[in-house]
């Protein structure tokens, strides 16, 4: 499978030679269509087409591809990207701190912020995540992620080497200049804000303690930064098939069963929601 997209492109193309993925897509298509029609703020991947081409040549191999919406289609530069599942086993980037940049996909154990949403948006976020996870669970889907893009609004923000190392024993606090706004008043910008897209909010820095088991969510520090968020639920074409059941059984002998990604859809949904409702919280400060 391979993918092609740029941040400023509206559409995203993912190609696969695995017909199983296509079968899963077609099987859930009617339910997916009804879900998207019923919930205009759904966070699940927006699919726009499924296509197949036969390549020229002796073997005439078929390549199938889906066209979907690009979460990061924006004029804002995405400074940090997180792929979040709610599991801990292997959920950290394999890059050293010195090589992490704006295009690195960070994971659960790399997350060092709590995103604090205004009350209205937090309530809408909870309602929609509940609805989306119910839908995915009913379709026997698991292994999906919440993809989050973070744009730091303050132009004075300086990201230095090690600035996103949230382990208190390894790194220092980010060299960020806080700029806390109470929200946009520009009508043009307000009209573009929707759940998961162009959302101004605050990110609170967290730090993980080094003397305990891996923490999915670190301890809040009180350092707040003005950010714009983009997020959505991706990778929704993996069902809990025999290969995932075997993966779960095999890894359960070696690791804590609750830490691995491959679990049944009901457990996956519950764990996913538990995690994102800790990573995203209501901003208790009155606006």
Automatic annotation (TrEMBL):
This is 1-phosphatidylinositol-4-phosphate 5-kinase. Residues 1-280 form the PIPK domain. SMART domains: PIPKc (SM00330). PROSITE patterns: PIPK. Its EC number is 2.7.1.68. Keywords: ATP-binding, Kinase, Nucleotide-binding, Transferase. It is an enzyme of class 2 (transferase). It comes from Triticum turgidum subsp. durum. One of its GO terms (cellular component) is plasma membrane. Residues 165-180 have a biased composition (Low complexity). Gene3D superfamilies: 2-Layer Sandwich, Phosphatidylinositol Phosphate Kinase II Beta. InterPro entries: PInositol-4-P-4/5-kinase_C_sf, PInositol-4-P-4/5-kinase_core, PInositol-4-P-5-kinase_N, PInositol-4/5-P-5/4-kinase. Residues 162-191 are annotated as: Disordered. One of its GO terms (biological process) is phosphatidylinositol phosphate biosynthetic process. GO terms for molecular function: 1-phosphatidylinositol-4-phosphate 5-kinase activity; ATP binding.
């Amino acid at each position: 499978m391979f993918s092609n997209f740029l941040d400023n492109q509206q559409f995203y193309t993912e190609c696969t030679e695995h017909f199983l993925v296509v079968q899963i897509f077609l099987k859930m298509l009617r339910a997916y269509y009804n879900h998207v029609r019923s919930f205009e703020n759904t966070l699940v991947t927006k699919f726009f087409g499924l296509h197949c081409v036969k390549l020229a040549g002796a073997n005439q191999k078929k390549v199938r591809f889906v066209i979907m919406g690009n979460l990061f289609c924006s004029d804002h530069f995405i400074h940090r990207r997180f792929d979040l599942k709610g599991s801990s086993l292997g959920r950290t980037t394999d890059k050293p701190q010195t090589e992490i940049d704006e295009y690195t996909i960070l994971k659960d154990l790399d997350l060092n912020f709590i995103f604090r949403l205004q009350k209205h948006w937090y309530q809408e976020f909870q309602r929609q995540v509940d609805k989306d996870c119910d839908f995915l669970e009913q379709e026997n889907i698991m292994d999906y992620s919440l993809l989050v893009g973070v744009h730091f609004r303050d132009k004075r923000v300086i990201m230095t080497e090690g600035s996103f190392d949230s382990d208190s024993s390894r790194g220092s606090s980010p060299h960020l200049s806080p700029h806390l706004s109470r929200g946009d008043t520009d009508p043009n910008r307000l009209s573009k804000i929707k759940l998961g897209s162009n959302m101004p909010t605050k990110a609170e820095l967290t730090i993980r303690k080094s003397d305990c088991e891996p923490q999915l969510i670190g301890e809040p520090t009180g350092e707040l930064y003005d950010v714009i968020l983009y997020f959505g639920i991706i990778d929704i074409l993996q069902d809990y098939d025999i290969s995932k059941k075997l993966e779960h059984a095999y890894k359960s002998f070696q690791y804590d069963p609750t830490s691995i990604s491959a679990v049944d859809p009901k457990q996956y949904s519950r764990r996913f929601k538990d995690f994102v409702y800790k990573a995203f919280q209501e901003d208790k400060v009155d606006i």
